[in-house]
Each structure stands twice: as C-alpha cells, then as structure tokens.
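Notebook B, p. 112. Complex prediction, attempt 2.
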Amino acid sequence: MEQTVPTPEIIPQSTNPEVSVPVEEQKTPPPAPNLNLKKWVPMASIILVILIIVIVLSTVSIKKQTPKPVAATPTPTSTPVPSVNHTLAPYATQSAFLNFETAIDALPGTIQNAVLEDQTLTPPVLDLPLGFSN
Amino acid sequence: MKRLLASVLVVAGFLLVTHPVFATSAQAYQDFLYQFDVYRQNYSDFQVSKNEYQKFQSLTAQTDALAKTKTMLAERDQLLRSYLLLLDEKLAEDQGLTASTKVLYQTLVRNEASFLADDSSKIQAVASIPDAVQASSNLESHYNILQSSIKQILIGLGLGQLSLLSQYYDTNVKTAQTLIANYSGSMTPDKQQTVNRWILQIQNKRSFYQQKYDEITAEDTNLTARDSQGLDDKYNTMTQGLADARQYLVEGASYLVELKNELKYSQ
C-alpha cells in the first residue's frame, strides 16, 4: 500500500492585500531593538554623568551658601552724649540762685501732686423716700 | 509734793495755751464717720420694722415702725449736719480762698445747718406714719438745694487749693525776674533775649490758668440744676476745669525749670 503524501493546502489568494499576508511572515517575532539600545546607552550615560555633576556642584554651592552660626559677641556701644560744654555762670553758686534752684526744682511736683478733690469730703448717699405703701 | 503738783499743773496749762485743742477737720471727719455708722444701723432697723408693719399691719408693728422711722429721720439730719460741720472746718483751715469768698461758703453751710435743725424739730413732733412721710418729704424737696450748696463748697475748696498753688508759682516767677534783672550784666544779649522771651511764655501760662480759674468761679457761684443728674454733670465739668487749670500751672512750672537751667550755665 502506498501512502499518499498529503498535499499542502493551497490557500486561495485574495485580492485584499491585508488578508494576503503569508502565514510564515505573521509568525516571526518582532525584531529586537538592538540598534536602538546601542544608540541610547551612550546618550543615557552622558545624561547621567551630567546629572551627577549638576547634583555634586549644587550640593557644594549650597554648603558654601548656608551661613554658619556665628556666636553673638556683644560689642559695647557707648551712649551718645551731647557734647555741650556746660560752664556754670558766675552767679550760679551764689546763695540766692541756689535757693531759687531748689524752689524751682520742687515746683512742678508740688503743683502736680496737690490734692484738688479731697476724698474725705465725699458726700453721703441717702435713700430719701420712706417707701410706705398707702 | 504740793510744789511738784503745782509745777505740773503750770506746765500742763502752758501746753494747753500754746497748743490749742485738736478740734480740726480731722476730728470733724471722725465724727462724720461715726454718724454715718449710726445712720446705717438705724436705716437698717427702719427697713426691717417697715417691712414687718407692711406684712402684718398690726398695731404693735405700726408702733415699732413709727419709732424706728422717727429715729432714722433724726439720725439722717444728724448725719447731714455732721457732714456740713466737716465742710465748715475745711473752709476754716483753707488758706487759698479770700476772706469774702470764705464767708460766702460759710453762709451756705449755716443756712443748710439751720434748715436741718428746723427739720429735726419737726421730726420730734411726728405722731403717725403719715406724719413721718410728710416730715421726710420736707427734706426730700429741699435735697437738691442742699446738694447744690455742698457741691459749690467742694468746688470752692478746690479753687482755694489752686489759688494757693498759683501764689507759690507767682512767688517763684518774681524771684526769677529779680535774679534776671540782677544778673543781666553777666549775660550775652542773645541770652537776655531768650530769657525774656521765656518769661513771657511763663506768664502766658499763668494767664491761661487765671482765665480757667475765673470761668470755674463764675460757674460755681451760679450753680443750680433741676435734678440730681444735672447737678452731677455740672459738678464733673467743673472738677475737670480745676484739673485743666492746674495743668497750665504745671506747664508753666516746667518752663521755669528750663529757664533756671538756661540761667545756670553760661553757654
């Protein structure tokens, strides 16, 4: 008995180009992006290096800019004094002037502290009507 | 022993003559405080007996209420009289008022004291609760006039204090002027001009004070009001006026201090 060799089925070709894709071509895996990877690796490494440089530089500059806490050292400042030469008048040491000076120095306080309204003289408050109901 | 006793009596007599009895405003104030305490107690008793009478309307309660009312009314007059006496003592001690003004205020005190004495005699004649109500209304109708007189005197005493201060102020200004006249030879013309200008400003402050003083005096002389609130308002205005007048003197006194410093130093 002779075995009959199976003949491959002939797929009728259609006029539609989309449908007429050969079966072998459809099954092949997508091409690996070998070419793209080769292009991107140097680019990425350059960007990475640039980023590292930028980060390092920025950290260095920030460290330089942050002010170090300076211990406050009080510097003694003298109160400005008006430089007026006070020379006593020739009569300023005479007894008449000294008495006058004493009296005048006490005058504002004496007037300010004088009691014009004596609190002991507050009049008594009285309820006058007796309030008897008729 | 007899000699010792005699010498002690002589010394005691001498002390009495040289130091008069201490019956001043301080004593009058103590009397006033005592009378106020007595009045408060009597008023409290009066209120209790009045409430009892109104509650029970019994003859016993009525008799008790009448007695307590009469006592309270008499003590009320006595309290006001003690207060007037205190004012009179203060007026007597005052050194700033002129004699005529003082007499005016003392007349007010006497008139009010006379009214209260008359009122007290009427209270003694009270024989029933309606009589007591009538007797009380005698003081009630006069109370506004009494309050006016009291407030007039209080302002008068304030004016007396101000007057004393202004006298002290004037004395110092005069001393300053005398010193300036005496020392003018030792001053430069510029300094003399400055000092004279400052003296004018010191005198201006005195003038402002005097205007305020006269204004308050006029208001005080004619002090009247229809009711207690109006009287209080006028009194408060005058009290503020006294403070304002004093402030002019304070400002003038501070100018005087500056003048003294200017005179003290020669550049």
